[in-house]
Every structure is written in C-alpha cells, then in structure tokens.
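ok trying again, last paste got cut off:
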Amino acid sequence: MKTKKIASGAFTILIFLSACGKDVLMTPEQGTMKVLLTDAAYPIGSVSSAKVTVSKIEVRSDSSSGDNFTDVTLAQPKAIDLINLRNGLTQELNSAKVPTGTYSEIRLIANDGQIVLKDGQEYSLKVPSGDESGIKIKINPPVVISREKTTEMLIDFDLSKSFVQQGNGKFLFKPVIRAASIPSSGSISGTVTNNNGTPANTADDVPVANAVVSVVSGDQVISTTTFSNDTGQYSVIGLPPGSYTVTTSLPNFSDQTNQSVVVSTGSVTPLSIQLSPVNPN
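nice, full thing came through this time. structure:
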C-alpha cells in the first residue's frame, strides 16, 4: 500500500493525470490517471477508525457529450481507513489511461463506510440509495491534461460531514466531497497555539492538537475543514486562488477568525493561529 506525504492536514484523494509520449502503447492523445486517497476533519478524539469503500471512479472531459464519463477502473473495491491519512498522507487507489483535455467533473461510487470508536463501538454504514449510482463532483479549478505532462487532481473527502452522528448515537453515511486541480490551486498552512492569555507574548505559546480549522471562500463556494495535529500543525491544500475566511475553534478556547486570507496559484499561504483560553490561569 503506497502513501505519499503532501503538505496538508486534510484527508484527500489525489488523482495524477499524465499525458504520455508516442513510445507508450496507447491510443493517440491519452494520459495516465493515478488515484490517491485521503480526507478532511472529524472529531477524531473519539474515533479509532473511519473506513470508506470506493468501488469506482469516473471522470468527464469538457469535450464529452451528455453523461459520458471515462472509467478509472479499480480491480476491486478498496476499503481505506481515513484516520490513517492525516497530515497530508495520501493513499493510492489506482492508475488508468485517460485522453488529454480539460476535465471539470468526476463521479465517485462509495459503497459503504465504517466507524469504530475508541470505546470499541462499531457502526457499519451504507450509502443512501440516492448516491448508489455515484456522486458527481465539480472540479474547481478544472484539470487540464497536456501531452507528455503530469497533472494532479485532488479530491477532498470531508469526513466531518460524511459521517453524521445522529441523536441515537448511531451514524449516517452520506459522502461529502470536493475536487480541485493541484497545479491551479494553492494552500494555507501553519500552526495553532494556545497563547495562555498573553497574545502579545509568544514565548509562552504552546501547540494545541485537534483544533478545528475551517476554510471558506469569499463566495461561499469552497468550504473545507481540517484539524491541527499533535504539534499544532495544520494544512489545507487544493484551494482555488482567492480570498478566504479561516475560523479556528477548540473547546475551552475562544474562536479565532482570520479574514481576507489570500491564496495564490502554486503557493503556500502561511497562517499562524493563536487561540485564547476562555479562563486563562
């Protein structure tokens, strides 16, 4: 099982789309698609495992007519534990050849999911019947595949919204996913710290884990979430260029909102976040 380190705290699928040269045995103007998986935030303090089973992935070129998708064939369904893919680790799903062109839509079929809590409780979940035929996701920005070049496409599988805990303590599985072209995107990355009630004095700041970092674009089109890790680090990748509002929250701390955080193509926007305790000592 292959994993790859990306500068991100979100769990994400990465699809590498590669246009190949003439020495490769394939039809003219084809490329290769490699699919890697990871995901976004969930209250991970109480969860030991969060698995999703993916059985099929398809992409649609802008030049395709109607509902014609290109299949990124999986030899068999793959169950992947999203909890293991924190802090930018991705897992490969598959590779397949695709034609060159612009891709603005993907269809993913997730069969089921499973949540295992740290207290040993297990919940096996099925995808609602309306999603069994596949979840269509717009790619923003679109992926452009050029001959003899490799392009990465990210799919952010938002665990915080996909596994919904109900009032009876059980879970509902309804996948929530976004997709983006990595070369046309940027990222936000930094560290979340406890300022111990002295925001002007950073010498006594300490990193905090499991802070929820929510990122929303100015037009409300992009919304994603991640957690800080044990060293306080977080990262959100695959963000289209633009201005974002970053809101960070953690129990017993005041929420911190950073507005007008600018993301540029191909760049990492650094953002250190200080949280103030509600009742500092």
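cool. The helical segments are 159-162. The chain has one helix and 23 strands.
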